Structures are given as structure tokens and as C-alpha cells.
Amino acid sequence: MNRQAFLDHYLVDRRQTDSSKWDGMKEKFGEEDLLPMWIADMEFKTCDAITAALTGRCKHGVFGYSMVPESYYKAYSDWMDQRYSFPLKKDWVRFSTGCVTGIAWMIHAYTQPGDACMILTPVYYPFHNVVTNNNRRLVTVDLHYEHGYFTMDYEAIEKTIIENDVKMFVQCSPHNPAGRVWDEEELDQVLAICEKHHVLVVSDEIHQDLVIADKKFIPAAAVSNGRYRDIIVTLSSASKTFNLATLLHSHIIITNDELRARYDQFASGLNRTEVSIMGMLATQAGYEAGSEWLSHVLDTIRDNYIYLKEILNQELPEVTVCELEGTYLAFLDMRGYLSPDEVQHFIQKQCHLAVDYGEWFGANFKGFIRLNLATDPKFVRQAAEIIIEMIKNKKNS
Ligand SMILES: Cc1ncc(COP(=O)(O)O)c(C=O)c1O
């Protein structure tokens, strides 16, 4: 299938389908005629293999209590092995209804009220809320930002851990919205600091399959041949990969026996840790037959990103389009043309775009916007063109 055929087959109009991105815009932004470039899901229908698996179950018509078959674990392990050389043992895997729910459960399983949990900002805003809403102390460390590229500030991380007696680090890998796919050496350094100070690492790897740069995603539990496995719990899902967010199915991977026993003890107090049949069927079908669809999606995201970066570099050289190695979420630093306080009003009222704003991800990132590129290239063009036109008008006025 060529690119156009892929787009023709899979792009879909999501208006009037109760989609948060389109139909929830009024509630979130107070207006409904914006071009939605916010929230992290895709404008593409999921792959045909997944739709067929779900349709088949609908035709059968029974949605009673279900179990996870051996073939599911095999499909999941094969996917992890073939892509990341990280085969999984069935015994390591537990399930939750979402990665953020998984973070909440890990907070309860492994920390006490008032304990400090660290995140590296700017980061996906529910990371902030899930810590504070569960009565833990939120400790943030800003990533180092230079020339549109984010890196970890190891000195600040270690100092913060010591000063705050941090118990848990909620890591985002690949990182939303920084767009980084962490190198093995970077992960090794931060994990070594956590190990030294007895900090448990919860690694949210929901974006693992969405790498557009020429580099490899490394699961935290595979870093340095698994050296840090005993301090890591990994959260992941096929929901970003195959656009399945509301099927509410995600994984918790715990390789260490003692940590797993502690989690199981916690989970025995939860009524529901079995899986949603639709989430499970979709995930298995994606892992078994979704590779080609995914590579078309990645090519589309990459092309959208290259277009956006090139056109903005050319027309608005003072807008910094941050390096996008992974995720489909481009982070743009608008401060070259606009004061941080102007950005929201300018983007919504003059450009008529619905985006995620930098300050949602971290207090020091006001003046950035995040654009979702898992969409029709035509929307990326429209967004770029209106930003260019409005900034040029502003400069000339
Ligand atoms: C890093 C990260 N974790 C988790 C989520 C949401 O996952 P879930 O819907 O499974 O809670 C997102 C969604 O954008 C995300 O970017």
C-alpha cells in the first residue's frame, strides 16, 4: 500500500463520534471551531487486523468474564523481543486499565502518604496530578533545554533526590512532550543514581513503538543487560501504538520477585485487575499483524514533522521546533516571537488552534505549544500556515 492509499483508507472524520479531540473541544477550550491539534490520539483508524478481531467478537456477541490466553503472552513477548530484544516472561506481566492508573497503583503499592515522587519536567500533565492527588509530595526537576533539545540534568536529579528523600521516580520514556528517545547511556546514568539512593523507578513506556528518528528505544529494564531490573516497574500499552486509548488495556511489567509480590499484595485489595476482552483482543491482533500499519503511521508522522520543521525554520526562524525522536507530539518554543503570556491568546484567538500549552507540562515551559502530528498532513499544513501568517502579520503591524 502506498502512502496515499494508506491515508485514503485509514484517515477518518471523527466529528460527532464523542471524540474528546473534536467533540470535547468546547468543554476544554470554550470554543468548537478550532482546528484540534491537541490530545494524544490519532486521526487514523486502527489497523484492519484489530478491527477484524473486534468485529469477530461482536458477531459472537458474548462479552462475559474472560481470561488471557497463552497466545496473548506469546504475541506480546515476540513483539518486545523482535523490536527491543527484550522477551517477556508471562509471570512478569500484570494488567491495568491505563498507564496513568498504573502509576496511581504503583504509588499506593510502594510509597506512603507524604513520600516524595520525582518527575522530570516538562512532562505529561497527569504525572503531576497522579502524585499530588494521591497525597504524595511532587518533586520536579527540569530537563536541560538547549537549541531545541532536552537532556537530563544528572546533578540536579541527584541533589533533588538527596534533599527530598525521593522514594519514587516516575520516568517517561520516550518522553512526552520533550520528544526524546533516551539513549542507553542516559538511562544508565539516571538509573544508577536511583539505584544508589534506593529510589524505585516507574518507567512509563507507552510511547515505546513511536520512534521516528534513526535510533532504538531501550526498555529501562533492558539497560546494561538488565542491571537495574530490581528497581524498575515498567508500564506500557499498545494504546498509543494502535490508537486504542479507550479500550482501557495496559501492562505492568515487574521482573523482580519481591517487588511483584508487594504489588500482588496491594492488588489483592483491588476488585478488578483482570482484562477487558476488547482491549486484550485488539492488543494481541496489533502485535500479531499490525507492523505494516504502524510503519505507515510512523512514515506519516515523520513526514509531518519534517514538513513542520522545514517550513517553520524557513518562514519563522525564531520558532524552535524541538527535536522529535519519538512520540507524535511536536513541542514548539514560540518565545522568539511572542512573550510567554501572549502565547495562549495568540494561538487560540488568532490562529484558531486547539493545542496543549507548555505550562500544562511544567511551570517553566510557558511559551511552548505541543502539536499532535498523528493526523492528516493537510491539518499540519493548515496549522503551520496560520501560525506563519499570524506571526508575520503581528510583526508587520
Ligand atoms: C507518557 C504518557 N503516559 C500515559 C498516557 C495515557 O495513558 P493511559 O490513557 O493509558 O492512562 C499518555 C497519553 O498521552 C502519555 O503521553
Automatic annotation (TrEMBL):
Cofactor(s) of this protein: pyridoxal 5'-phosphate
Domain Aminotransferase class I/classII large stretches: 70-387
Origin: domain of life: Bacteria
Alphabetized CDD domains for the sequence: AAT_like
Pfam families: Aminotran_1_2
EC assignment: 4.4.1.13
InterPro entries, per the entry: Aminotransferase_I/II_large (IPR004839), C-S_lyase_PatB-like (IPR027619), Class-II_PLP-Dep_Aminotrans (IPR051798), PyrdxlP-dep_Trfase (IPR015424), PyrdxlP-dep_Trfase_major (IPR015421), PyrdxlP-dep_Trfase_small (IPR015422)
UniProtKB keywords: Lyase, Pyridoxal phosphate
UniProt enzyme class: lyase
SUPFAM superfamilies: PLP-dependent transferases
One GO molecular-function entry: pyridoxal phosphate binding
Record-stated family: Belongs to the class-II pyridoxal-phosphate-dependent aminotransferase family. MalY/PatB cystathionine beta-lyase subfamily.
Xref: NCBIfam families: C_S_lyase_PatB
Stated name of the protein: cysteine-S-conjugate beta-lyase
UniProt source species: Enterocloster lavalensis
Organism lineage string: Bacteria, Bacillati, Bacillota, Clostridia, Lachnospirales
